[in-house]
């Protein structure tokens, strides 16, 4: 099976976790996009959604699915999103698509976090995928020094402009992303706490303090369900 077929399979499986009549939190990325397309088929069953990025909100609205501002909502039944890496205990690295901060906020007010991922995302020790950290632009250099002191190799995420030059990638929140390579994350909870405390950090893409409750993992042998 191709990676897209595996993503499609977990997106279909995630529909079973959608709670009728409720607000659903929706993540960001290629796997979440497959889920959005599946959710569109049963949109009449839900009250609406809260999106974790402008891109997700646009895709949901494109399907005619209601998107609520988080401030208008008191509870979210379930949050469904992809991951860049996930461990057998449900800790994740997220933020490859730069949506980590809103993802963390929406996940934090959701009843259940259902992670949907192709099997390649399951790892023993996280850190091969560079850890994304969203920062206030004025704190970029100071935060990078701290991340270096923690043993990482931080790099500012950039994007190519139409004029062909590289400039800092700017998130939906006006932040910048530092991708930290070279970390072997043996204690994800401790590292998440430590990076959270660095002044200037908006959010770190480690989801260990509040990890996934369920992971639907796409494999050649079908969708495997890991419960944490
Ligand atoms: O910021 C992006 C998110 O954390 C994504 O959920 C993560 O990067 C996984 O994306 P994909 O499903 O495209 O691999």
TrEMBL record:
Reaction(s) catalysed (UniProt annotation): aldehydo-D-ribose 5-phosphate = D-ribulose 5-phosphate
Tell me which InterPro entries the record gives. NagB/RpiA_transferase-like, Ribose5P_isomerase_typA_subgr, Ribose5P_isomerase_type_A
Task: Tell me a Gene Ontology molecular-function term this record carries.
Answer: ribose-5-phosphate isomerase activity
Pfam families of this UniProt entry? Rib_5-P_isom_A (PF06026)
One GO term under biological process is:
pentose-phosphate shunt, non-oxidative branch
The residues that the entry says bind substrate are 28-31, 81-84, 94-97, 121
Q: Which GO terms describe its cellular component?
A: cytosol
Which pathway is this protein assigned to?
Answer: Carbohydrate degradation; pentose phosphate pathway; D-ribose 5-phosphate from D-ribulose 5-phosphate (non-oxidative stage): step 1/1
Cite the PANTHER family for this sequence: RIBOSE-5-PHOSPHATE ISOMERASE
Name this polypeptide is given: Ribose-5-phosphate isomerase A
Species this chain originates from: Massilia psychrophila
Q: Which gene encodes it?
A: rpiA
């Amino acid at each position: 099976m191709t990676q897209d077929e595996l993503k499609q399979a977990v997106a279909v499986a995630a529909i079973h976790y959608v709670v009728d009549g409720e607000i659903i939190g929706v993540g960001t990325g290629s796997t979440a996009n497959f889920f959005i397309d599946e959710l569109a088929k049963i949109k009449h069953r839900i009250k609406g959604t809260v999106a974790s990025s402008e891109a997700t909100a646009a895709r949901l609205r494109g399907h005619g699915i209601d998107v609520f501002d988080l401030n208008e909502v008191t509870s979210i039944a379930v949050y469904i999103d992809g991951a860049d890496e996930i461990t057998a205990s449900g800790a994740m690295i997220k933020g490859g698509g730069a949506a980590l901060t809103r993802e963390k906020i929406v996940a934090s007010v959701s009843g259940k976090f259902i992670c949907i991922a192709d099997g390649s995302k399951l790892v023993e020790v996280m850190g091969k995928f560079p850890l994304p950290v969203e920062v206030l632009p004025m704190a970029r250099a100071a935060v990078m020094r701290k991340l270096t002191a923690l043993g990482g190799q931080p790099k500012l995420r950039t994007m190519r402009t139409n004029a062909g030059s590289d400039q800092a990638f700017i998130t939906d929140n006006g932040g910048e992303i530092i991708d930290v390579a070279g970390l072997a994350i043996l204690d994800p909870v401790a590292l998440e706490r430590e990076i959270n405390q660095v002044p200037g950090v908006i959010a770190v893409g480690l989801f260990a303090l509040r990890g996934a409750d369920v992971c639907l993992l796409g494999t050649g042998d079908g969708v495997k369900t890991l419960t944490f």
